[in-house]
Design a protein that fits this description.
Elements lengths: L1 H26 L3 E8 L4 H18 L9 E8 L5 H12 L5 E3 L4 H14 L3 E3 L15 E3 L4 H14 L4 E7 L2 H15 L4 E8 L5 H12 L5 E5 L5 H10 L8 E4 L1 H9 L5 H5 L5 E5 L5 H13 L13 H22 L6 E3 L1 H4 L12 E3 L2 H9 L2 E4 L2 E4 L10 E8 L2 E9 L3 E3 L43 E6 L9 E2 L6 E2 L1 H11 L7 E6 L8 H9 L5 E2 L7 H4 L3 E2 L4 E3 L1 E6 L1 E3 L12 H22 L10 H14 L12 H30 L2 E3 L5 H6 L4 E4 L4 H9 L6 E4 L2 H10 L8 E5 H8 L5 E4 L6 E3 L2 E2 L4 H15 L2 H10 L22 H29 L1 H11 L4 H13 L2 H46 L1
Parallel strand pairs: 1-2, 1-3, 3-4, 4-5, 6-7, 6-8, 8-9, 9-10, 18-21, 18-22, 28-29, 28-30
Antiparallel strand pairs: 10-15, 11-12, 13-14, 15-16, 16-17, 19-20, 23-33, 24-32, 25-30, 25-31, 26-27
Keywords: Disulfide bond, Glycoprotein, Ion channel, Ion transport, Ligand-gated ion channel, Membrane, Receptor, Signal, Transmembrane, Transmembrane helix, Transport
Subcellular location: Membrane
Membrane topology: Multi-pass membrane protein
């Protein structure tokens, strides 16, 4: 019975399984309708059509994809990218129960028909509509199957930045694709401190005359780096007109987007005239890595295009590879869609039902109910196609976009490198298995042949020949007119800064029309910072004069190379210092005096130690020895010491000490002579530190950056700062002093102060410069003129012209006593510590050797006496040993040696007297034995 029930259960399970399988199989259709909207009558369109048809045929013949389901593709012609006709054409495709559409060809059409796709929930898969704005949330059913143009513009920006160009001109078709692509390029250039200085849009139907007028305006602009972003129809016309206008010669840089590489790949038989029009142009091609699939497809391409009706062979570009892969992506997405148990159903659009009965028959359009599920399946595809690995990122773009950088040369093109979002610019193709290398050394490309058949990198900028005159602002100051002043009654200017500017401009390789415009009312010094702000506002094109380069100002404008170095200094009134009775102590500081005196006493003690045991001059009663130490040490100051040194160590130390004394005497004599004979001027202000810690008023030149610097950087209270207009007013305020309503000190730049002090000997610079600045000419940010003038300034500095201009305007007769202005500095220990160190080491070494010799003598001459003393006294304490040792050291060496010799003689004599008695007794024994022996022999 159990077996019967099991059999019934198995039958039921098989039955249900068969029913379920039948239901699933019934949900998978025999065919799926897809559409392809493209301009198939163009060269690119013919290539795409062949690639799509080949992909559909391959998918339908592969049972591993979609099983028995076939793809039915409807090829719909896009009528020359015209938006209105494109709407009607896409409606025709969608009325056929289409689940997806491959296309459109252009971003302009995509912007129009994507709204229809969103309404009917039919995915649009486009590999050529690469407008970056199509990736927004506004177009959820637009699926990009090619690289986003955002990465193309990033690659162009990196290329431009790698050559150091800052200004770019954009020539583009004024449609959605052109505007949005150029906007993306502008954003990427701005991230690299570059900019699009001029935009040249042209209408989609521009005539050759309109293109000519457009490029004439481009030729009048400053930049020579031109990016062309158009399509395959209008791009060649732009280059043909540019060639006719002479804009394809030396100095120009032309960068074309992907349209030019597509032309080179597809139309393999361009005429020689067409190739001449694009010599030296840089273009980019979507990078597709080499693979076996790609090689096999290229080998098939000749057979696929043998029925091509064109007169020339039809080439294959990356667009064709992406068109082929797009069909495969859709097929794999449908396969995944069906395997998840989904079916294809359509429903009426309630929004269109109200139009029932109209002549447009819009009620025939149906909503694809599972459109969102199919879209998700498309984004989940992860495969390897003929274009390489195919995978989507979270933002809906293809992963790892990359481009080849192509240089058009001769009758063909040459790849000079690659760009990838992974590793940037490189001469090697991107390798995603290795860590990305973003170092400057790796971001290099192969040499480029630029327009004009030159390998030299174009400067990328020229001064425009458009008749425009630069408005150069010149500060009109009421002080120090030697630097820049307006010639009375004329519009001309003269001065040191003016001559430097004129000399630099004359070295430029192009003419610069300019006009000097005075800035200021002539009654007070104008603010340089405000002048620079007017440059940023466009009122002036530059500024020439004594304008200091500061950190704050460099954030507003670009400065040239400094043509004069300067810095802030403090000027204060000085008074003559009178000598006093203690002037002889002035050469040395108190520390120097103390250390010198200590060393004199130390040297006397060291010489006494070394000479005490061998030299009678250093012996005697204690009082005499102390006097000798002091007398000897201080008499060496005048080399008048009477005591002779007899020991080797003493002479060694004395020679070094006498050398030190010689240096000290010479320095003291020179300093004292200067103090007593040279006029000494002093000031209570010692530098900026004195002013910071004080409360006295401080003067500064009106209109300069000094006030803000002292308040913001140094921390001086603004109420203490007094603006002064002219050098005369500054001198008057310094003479009055704080007590009479003047100032305690005056702060200004050294270049001004040198002129100020040239005729005013009662003032002086106190303390060192406390800033390091320079003067430069100012121009708008990223102005190439600032760079070229910097090079010219360096040239006039190297050839001596800058010095000659300086001598012409600023070399004046300085105050004759200016050299005696600064107070003579006292000699301190820092200047002599090396001598004292050598002397101290010599003393230490001599004493160490002396101690070793003493210990050796003590051990040799006094050890036995010490043993006898210990045995007789019965004690051997350390104190007794120390007293004995000190007594030994105090004794004269000759006495010690004499006593030691005498005791040695006494010991020898003592041993000799004991040895005689023993000798006599032994002789007597020997004689007796001899007598006995003789008597035996006789017998």
């Amino acid at each position: 019975m159990v077996v019967v029930w099991l059999l019934v259960l198995m039958v039921l399970c098989n039955g249900f399984s068969s029913i379920e399988a039948g239901l699933n199989n019934s949900a998978i259709p025999d065919s799926v309708n897809i559409g392809a909207l493209f301009s198939f009558n163009t060269t690119v369109g013919r290539m795409v059509k062949i690639a799509i048809e080949a992909a559909v045929e391959d998918v339908n013949s592969d049972p591993s994809i979609l099983g028995k389901t076939k793809l039915n593709v409807s090829l719909q012609e896009d009528s020359k990218y015209r938006g209105f006709l494109s709407i009607s054409e896409v409606l025709q495709v969608m009325a056929r129960r289409t689940v997806a559409i491959i296309g459109p060809q252009t971003s302009t059409t995509a912007h129009v028909i994507t709204h229809i796709a969103n309404e009917l929930q039919v995915p649009l898969l486009s590999f050529s509509a690469n407008d970056p704005t199509l990736s927004s949330l506004q177009f959820p059913f637009f699926v990009r199957t090619g690289p986003n143009d955002l990465y193309l513009m990033t690659a162009i920006a990196d290329f431009i930045n790698s050559y150091g160009w800052k200004d770019v001109i954009a020539v583009y078709v004024d449609d959605d694709n052109g505007r949005n692509g150029i906007n993306a390029l502008g954003d990427k250039l701005a991230e690299r401190r570059c900019k699009i200085s001029y935009k040249a849009p042209m209408s989609p139907g521009a005539t050759p005359e309109e293109i000519t007028d457009l490029l004439v305006q481009v030729a009048l602009a400053e930049s020579r780096v031109i990016v062309v972003h158009t399509n395959t129809n209008w791009g060649p016309k732009v280059f043909r007109v540019a060639k006719h206008l002479g804009m394809m010669g030396t100095g120009y840089v032309w960068i074309a987007t992907g349209f030019l590489s597509a032309i080179l790949d597809i139309d393999s038989s361009l005429t020689s005239d067409a190739m001449d029009d694009i010599q030296g142009v840089i273009t980019l091609r979507m990078y597709t890595p080499d693979s076996e699939l790609k090689r096999r497809f290229f080998s098939r391409w000749k057979n696929l295009t043998k029925d091509n009706n064109a007169d020339t062979p039809l080439g294959l570009s990356p667009l064709g590879l992406y068109a082929y892969d797009t069909v495969y992506v859709l097929a794999r997405a449908l396969d995944r869609f069906f395997k998840q148990g989904n079916s294809i159903t359509f429903s009426n659009d309630s929004k269109l039902s109200i139009l029932h009965g109209d002549n447009l028959h819009l009620d025939a359009l149906k909503i694809f109910d599972e459109g969102k599920l199919l879209r998700k399946s498309i984004y989940d595809v992860n495969m390897t196609g003929v274009s390489g690995p195919f995978k989507y990122t979270s933002d809906g773009d293809l992963a790892n976009p990359a481009y080849e950088i192509i240089n058009v040369i001769g009758t063909g093109s040459r790849r000079i490198g690659y760009w990838s979002n992974y590793s940037g610019l490189s001469v090697y193709p991107p390798n995603y298995s290795k860590p990305a290398n973003h170092s400057n050394a790796s971001q290099k490309l192969l040499p480029v042949i630029w327009p004009g058949d030159t390998a030299q990198k174009p400067r990328g900028w020229v001064f425009p020949n458009n008749g425009r005159v630069l408005r150069i602002g010149v500060p009109k100051r009421v002080s120090y007119e030697e630097f820049a002043k307006q010639i009375q009654g004329t519009d001309s200017f003269e001065g040191f800064c003016i001559d430097v500017f004129l000399s630099a401009v004359n070295l430029l390789p192009y003419a610069v029309p300019y006009k000097f415009i005075p800035y200021g009312d002539g009654h007070s010094n104008p603010s340089d910072t405000e002048l620079l702000r007017l440059i940023t506002a466009g009122e002036y094109d530059g500024a020439v004069g004594d304008i200091t380069i500061t950190t704050k100002r460099t954030k507003m404008v670009d400065f040239t190379q400094p043509f004069i170095e300067t810095g802030l200094v403090v000027v204060a009134p000085v008074r003559e210092s009178e000598s006093n009775a203690w002037a002889f102590l002035a050469p040395f500081t108190p520390t120097m005096w103390c250390v010198t005196a200590s060393f004199f006493i130390l040297m006397g003690a060291v010489i006494w130690i070394l000479e005490h045991r061998v030299n009678d001059d250093f012996r005697g009663p204690p009082k005499k020895q102390v006097v000798t130490i002091f007398w000897f040490s201080f008499s060496t100051m005048f080399f008048s010491h009477r005591e002779n040194t007899v020991s080797t160590l003493g002479r060694f130390v004395l020679i070094i000490w006498l050398f030190v004394v010689l240096i000290i005497n010479s320095s003291y004599t020179a300093s004292l002579t200067s103090i007593l004979t040279v006029q000494q001027l002093s000031s209570p202000i010692k530098g900026i530190e004195s002013l910071v810690n004080g409360k006295e008023p401080i003067g500064y030149m009106q209109g300069s950056f000094v006030r803000n610097y002292l308040v913001e950087e140094i921390g001086i209270d603004a109420s203490r700062l007094i603006p002064l207009k002219t050098p005369e007013e500054s001198a008057k305020a310094l003479k009055k002093g704080p007590q009479e309503g003047g100032v305690a000190a005056y702060i200004d730049e050294r270049a001004y102060i040198e002129l100020f002090l040239s005729t005013r000997c009662d003032f002086t610079i106190v303390g060192p410069e406390f800033t390091r600045n320079g003067w430069g000419f100012a121009f708008p940010r990223d102005s190439p003129l600032a760079v070229d003038l910097s090079t010219a300034i360096l040239q006039i500095a190297e050839n001596g012209d800058l010095q000659r201009i300086h001598d012409k305007w600023l070399l004046s007769s300085a105050c004759l006593s200016q050299g005696a202005k600064l107070e003579v500095e006292r000699l301190n220990l820092k200047s002599f510590w090396g001598l004292y160190l050598i002397c101290g080491l010599a003393c230490f070494l001599a004493l160490f050797i002396y101690l070793i010799l003493i210990l050796k003598q003590y051990s040799k001459h006094h050890s036995k006496d010490l043993e006898l003393t210990d045995q007789s006294s019965g004690s051997g304490s350390g104190s007794s040993h120390l007293r004995t040792f000190l007594s030994f050291v105090d004794e004269k060496e000759e006495t010690v040696k004499h006593r030691s010799k005498r005791r040695q003689t006494e010991r020898i004599s003592y041993r000799g007297s004991n040895g005689v008695g023993s000798s006599i007794n032994s002789n007597k024994g020997y004689a007796a034995s001899s007598n006995i022996s003789n008597s035996d022999n006789v017998a």
